[in-house]
Amino acid sequence: MRSCRSRAWMVFGVLLLGSCQRAAPPAAPLVQAVDVALPIQRTVVDHEEFTGRTDAVSRVEIRARVSGYLIKVNFKDGDIVKKDDLLYEIDPRPFQAVLDDAKGTLERLVAQKKLLDIQVDRYRGLAAKGAASQQDLDQYLAQQAENVGSQNSAKAQIERAQLNLGFTTVASPIAGKISRTLLTVGNLVNADATLLTTVMSIDPIYAYFDIDEPTLLRVLKMKREGLLPQRIGLVEVSMGLADDVHHAFPLKGVLDFANNTVDPQTGTILVRGTFKNPYEMPTKPPLMLPGMFVRVRLDIGLPHKAFLVTERALGTDQGQKYVFVVGKDHKVAYRGITLGQVFDGLQAIEKGLNADDRVVVDGLQRIRPGMEVKAEPKDMASLAGPQ
Fold first, then answer.
1. pTM for this model (two decimals)
2. Hey, which end of the chain has fewer CB within 10 Å, N or C?
């Protein structure tokens, strides 16, 4: 009897518990929290980036114009030199001797000329009186003319000897940075053959880079349509060195050369920009040297307005780029977009956004269109990624 009562109470408890569970109210759906930010509206200019190398505007190989033994080197390897700075001295004594000999020859000819002038005047008078033959007069006249020619030749020899003597000092024809000397004192220098050193100009400096063929076609089309300057010297270009990790491109210059042919092997055309590179030694060395790696940014197109968003806000659906926006009803909406270029670490959106759209910048994987969310506002500029 007691066992039957226990089972009855157990059945009653189970039924009572089941009735309590059915009476509990349903739990409220969980609202997903997402970060949103308003797009930044900015006027931008499309651009392309290229890599290149700096090069000197002027590059001179220093060679002597006379042969002789080197007696002095007047610079230190790697110095910054000015135009006409003395670099090398070659033993001038042999050339001084040649000059002195040429001057002595001229002095002798000048003295002979005086005697011949006297003889010509004398025989001209005697011939007029019949006291001397015309043949004697003609002989002295010929000697006088020959003397004049010999003097002219002697003067040319003096000028040549003076030039050679001057060439024993080798000066820099340009201002710039000099390399190391390839010969030291005591070595024989052969005229026009022996390379002594090289000098490269520093300011201004060139930057050479290659433009791909599609970009070239785009530029030519825009020039035909009047959207870009016709003169290449009016096109501005920006440049950054290897330490420009943020791609700020702080150095400004202008294009001054484009090659006349496209390289059929690479499909590119060689282009050159000119940049200022001032220096004041030793306190202010130049910023660039020839041969440095550079990144170059070339603006292509006209200024236009675009919306900028962080790349974290972008999604891809079968090749179509999209973003999620949160409306005033706190529900998520899908927006197909057209991308532009990246500016200051933010992606430009050419089509698909409005200025007041609250773009979801975090949590895209946790939401879907039509879902109600809790929007947490953020600043779009603080979400910029690396440039």
1. 0.72
2. N
